[in-house]
TrEMBL record:
Name of this chain's protein: Gfo/Idh/MocA family protein
Stored SUPFAM superfamilies: Glyceraldehyde-3-phosphate dehydrogenase-like, C-terminal domain (SSF55347), NAD(P)-binding Rossmann-fold domains (SSF51735)
Gfo/Idh/MocA-like oxidoreductase N-terminal domain residues: 4-122
GO terms of molecular function: oxidoreductase activity
PANTHER family named among the record's database cross-references: BCDNA.GH03377
Domain GFO/IDH/MocA-like oxidoreductase: 135-270
Length: 370
């Protein structure tokens, strides 16, 4: 029997996940059968148009009518809408897949994670970059000890869509709705990759900056204040003794969606860039320089489901891999990672970076969040 899926949100992430759900049966025939049952939103006209394009059977303007009437609930709405529908779905015993960051605040992320623990059903957090084949290959190398003892990790996520001061205000510029700016929206992805690849973060020192204090409201003469960061940077100490640096910005002129991570060990190093997501730059101990590895061989993770070796895949394919793993966990009543626990762990790091900026001092996560 097909899993009936309800999806809240039909814009950027709604489209990305609807595309993934539609591709699953063609490229992942062992994936659970899925029925795109209902699309949830507020604007009935836009909702109906989106449901028609995305292949959903019906629409609803109230998530309360959906969460206990489907087999799986996807919460792809803005950050401030993550908690209430997700918790209601979990209390109804419905598995939930939620966009990142898990919540606008650490307190809300804890409430969501507590609900997931009580429910005992899969609860996934949408850190899709874990499902890039090159990232999976990097993890294999790190777990096998190929790079030796890890000394450094360096992550950055750069965009430039807000560098124009006349770019319109959106919910992403509001602390109450978004929680934070570049830190949560972009930094949560990098924090998750650091945890996934290298390990847990012990201490942080953070700095946040807002470059434009107010922005015009589209279609009016009004402006609204920007109450979140436009950029952040942070220094890290990790449990395994490695040190790290992170940064993200929406003001990095010339960078559209530049997410990179570098890891340096005693016996080698690797570099990954989302702008070249089929490649991994790898240096082993006796190499003279970095080797560019095209991660498209048939035995690379997920690649055998797509095209012959050498035929590259794109950003949207990471959502297919992510949906495949999550829905398989739901069908088999198994575990899925990244889970709400991972979302909460990332949220602790984000909160620590904010508190470090507020206080002008390093923040020890265990001591801060006892």
């Amino acid at each position: 029997m097909a899993l009936e899926v309800g999806v809240l949100g039909y814009r950027f992430m709604g489209k990305a996940h609807a595309n993934a759900l539609s591709r699953l049966p063609m490229f992942f025939p062992d994936a659970p059968a899925v029925e795109r049952r209902v699309l949830v939103g507020r604007d009935e006209e836009a909702l109906a148009e989106a449901a028609d394009r995305f292949g959903f059977e019906s629409t609803a303007t109230d998530w309360r009518e959906v969460v206990d009437d489907v087999d799986v609930f996807y919460n792809l709405g803005p950050n401030h809408v993550h908690a209430e529908p997700s918790i209601a779905a979990l209390e109804a015993g419905t598995p939930v897949f939620c966009e990142k960051p898990l919540a606008p605040t650490l307190e809300t992320a804890r409430e969501m994670t507590d609900a997931a623990r009580r429910a005992g059903v899969p609860a996934g957090c949408a850190f899709n970059y874990r499902f890039v084949p090159a990232i999976q290959y990097a993890k294999e190398l790190l777990e096998s000890g190929e790079l030796g003892e890890i000394h450094h990790v360096r992550g950055r996520y750069l965009q430039d869509w807000l560098v124009d001061p006349d770019a319109p205000w959106s919910w992403r510029n509001d602390e109450e709705m978004a929680g934070s700016g570049a830190l949560g929206d972009l930094g949560s992805h990098t924090v998750d990759l650091v945890r996934f690849l290298v390990g847990e973060i012990d201490r942080v020192s953070g700095h946040l900056q807002t470059f434009v204090d107010e922005r015009p409201v589209e279609g009016s003469d009004e402006t609204r204040p920007v109450t979140v960061d436009d950029a952040y940077s942070a220094q890290l100490e990790l449990e395994n003794g490695a040190m790290g640096t992170l940064e993200a910005s929406r003001f990095a002129t010339g960078h559209k969606n530049d997410h990179t991570i570098e890891i340096h060990g005693s016996e080698g190093s690797l570099k990954f860039s989302l702008e070249r997501l089929n490649e991994l730059e790898l240096l082993r101990e006796d190499d003279r320089g970095y080797e560019t590895i095209l991660v498209t061989d048939a035995d690379d993770p997920y690649v055998d489901h797509w095209w012959p070796p050498g035929h590259v895949i794109g950003w949207e394919h990471t959502f297919v891999h992510e949906n495949y793993e999550f829905l398989t966990a739901v069908a088999n009543e198994g575990a899925f990672e990244p889970s709400f626990e991972d979302g909460l762990a990332a949220q602790r790091v984000l909160e620590a970076i904010q508190r470090s900026d507020d206080r002008g001092e390093w923040v020890d996560l265990d001591r801060e969040f006892e």
